[in-house]
Amino acid sequence: MTELPVREGNADIPPREVRDWWRDAVVYQIYPRSFADSDGDGLGDLPGIRSRLPYLAQLGVDAIWLSPFYPSPLLDGGYDVIDPRDVDPRLGTVDDLRGIVADSHELGLRVFVDVVPNHFSWEHPWFKAALATAPGSPEWDRFHAVRGKGPEGELPPNNWHSAFGGPAWTPIPGHAGWWYLHLFDTSQPDLNWANREIHEDFQRTLRFWFDLGVDGFRIDVAHSLVKAEGLPDGPVVDEDEVMAGSERGPAWDQPGVHDVWREWRRVADSYDPPRVFVGEAWVATTEAQAAYTRPDELHTTFNFHFLRAFWDATVIRDVIGTSLLTSSAVGAPPTWVLSNHDVWRPVTRFAPWRDAHTMDIATGRRRAVAMSMLSLALPGSAYLYQGEELGLPEVVDLPDEVRQDPTFFRTEGRVKGRDGCRVPIPWSGDAPPYGFTTGTPWLPQPADWAGLTAEAQEADDSSTLALYRRALRVRRESPVLGDGELIWRESGHDDVLAVERPGERPILVLLNTGDGDRAVAVDGEVLLHTGEVSLDPDGALVIAPDTCCWIALA
Ligand code: GLC
Ligand code: MG
Fold first, then answer.
1. Which of 76, 280, 405, 483 is catalytic?
2. Is 296 a catalytic residue?
3. How far, in Å, is the centroid of ligand 1 from the Cα of 78?
4. What is the set of domains in the chain, with CATH numbers?
5. Distance, CA 538 to ligand 1 centroid (Å)?
6. What is the position in ligand 1's atom list of the atom closest to the CA of 80?
7. Can you tell me the distance from the alpha carbon of 415 to that of 220, in angstroms, rounded to the nearest whole number?
8. Tally of CB atoms within 10 A around 198
């Protein structure tokens, strides 16, 4: 193995002084409405989450992140917040959250909650107060109320799109010619971050949950908030492009937003131990992304460039390489994300397919799991989305009548939306609702998920769940996994990625994205493999296609 040439060093990453937990935490995302229901109303809730914490501790993750559980009309799955310092009564109480924090800490899990600073729900008291006044009022100054174009103001103030489709502007009722801005759904009016009151209110929210014991926040659309002065027209992009990423134009990634993160960092640093942030910023480049994690800003951001990599060793290698370089330039750890509540589940994304009826889900699952195992072996922090450890596929055939994603409505059904990755988790049993609830799940579960339940997989050593548990154990036990260095190795095949985690007991990670078996000369002990591996007559390791393998080097 030592003969393998170094492809491209990454040893210029300076060693760290402090080993902060968030630098290499594996964070498990919980989408509360779809995780576990305790009271039979078909909607997952906080007591349901609390009852499943031992499962997560058993899985071996380091932290959980809860998507919003705040009071909400649920017009955007809870990302439309009425009161950011309370819990939706359907999901529980602030005391339930306190219980989750206490139990999590007891189990060695940290807790992130979500904060949504770009907008409130239109049912937030501030928006209701604004609606009761005329544009120009102090109440409206908390939002963006703008005179439209055209003689009567009958045209929207600019050409911005909503990220969910359609225009980003809605007429203000009762005040002809005036519009309010919403980068997302009409029910999510954007906040005006030029108004100091907004800053103060969000700092109150941060402190409210920090004081209660949460360890950090996941920041929703951290690249919006501040808009270009004068709200100028943006580049004309087609709707699909807007919805794919909302990355360009005067509504996104403005320099001023970084001041907000500096302010927030001071709040987090005022706690002992310091609290942490992970930002959601769908920006165009890894450099732009890294700017969010400069030393006095956010601790980490989601790496969506990795999420978008497709099944090709060269593409994957490039995105890992640039992610490492750009994050190390600002001293932040990279993160590895394959899945969340906004994107197609990777099992289906990686499936070779011609149309919705001819998807090769088995291959998709092999690839998704292999990618996930690769990501768990990379330096930095990794994210798992609930159900990823069960190998759940995207539910692509939800009937239109059950869909709830505003994207579906705003595009008149042209874009199906994100409900298919939010289908409730199958815990046990042979048929829906698979132990998720005693009632009727808020989204229907497929009839063929019996083999995918946590219960079924717990009983099977060869299951996807068993593999994740194994990987997370090895990751915890190995001194070279988690934060640290990475060395690219030459596998001898363009379609086999070879990554070494150097150190006292080095680990080599191989990923075969090719279409056949590949032999790699390597001397060591196989710690984990997602597909077939064997030895050829020359003693080389033969790795099957769509397979990731971790090897403890001799
Ligand atoms: C983020 C959330 C997404 C939500 C949007 C608007 O992208 O992840 O679910 O719809 O922000 O808040
Ligand atoms: Mg419930």
1. 280
2. no
3. 9
4. 12-118+196-469 (3.20.20.80), 125-181 (3.90.400.10), 484-553 (2.60.40.1180)
5. 52
6. 12
7. 22
8. 20
248: tokens are: 């360009």
Which member of 37, 220, 253, 419 is catalytic? Answer: 220
Overall residue count recorded for the chain in this entry: 554
pLDDT tens sequence for the chain (554 residues): 333 433 333 233 333 334 589 999 999 999 999 999 999 999 999 999 999 999 999 999 999 999 999 999 999 999 999 999 999 999 999 999 999 999 999 999 999 999 999 999 999 999 999 999 999 999 999 999 999 999 999 999 999 989 998 899 999 999 999 999 999 999 999 999 999 999 999 999 999 999 999 999 999 999 999 999 999 998 876 666 555 545 678 999 999 999 999 999 999 999 999 999 999 998 888 889 999 999 999 999 999 999 999 999 999 999 999 999 999 999 999 999 999 999 999 999 999 987 767 899 999 999 999 999 999 999 999 999 999 999 999 999 999 999 999 999 999 999 999 999 999 999 999 999 999 999 999 999 999 999 999 999 999 999 999 999 999 999 998 999 999 999 999 999 999 999 999 999 999 999 999 999 999 999 999 999 999 999 999 999 999 999 999 999 99
**Alpha-carbon distance 136 to 299, whole Å?**
37
End-to-end CA distance of the chain: 8
Return the structure tokens found at 140: 């409206």
Q: Is the pTM of this model over 0.90?
A: yes
Best of 31, 185, 221, 415 to mutate for ligand 1, by most ligand atoms within 8 A of CB? Answer: 221
Alpha helices in 120-238 (DSSP H): 125-131, 196-212
Own/partner pairs, 441-444, CB within 8 angstroms, 24+ separation: 441/37, 441/42, 442/33, 442/34, 442/42, 442/43, 442/404, 443/34, 443/395, 443/398, 443/402, 443/404, 443/419, 444/398, 444/399, 444/402
Judge whether 280 counts as a catalytic residue.
Answer: yes
Pocket of ligand 1, beta carbon within 6 A: 76, 79, 116, 184, 220-221, 280, 341-342
Cα of 404 from ligand 1 centre, angstroms: 14
Residue closest by Cα to atom 5 of ligand 1? 79
Task: Identify the residue whose C-alpha is closest to ligand 1 atom 2.
Answer: 220
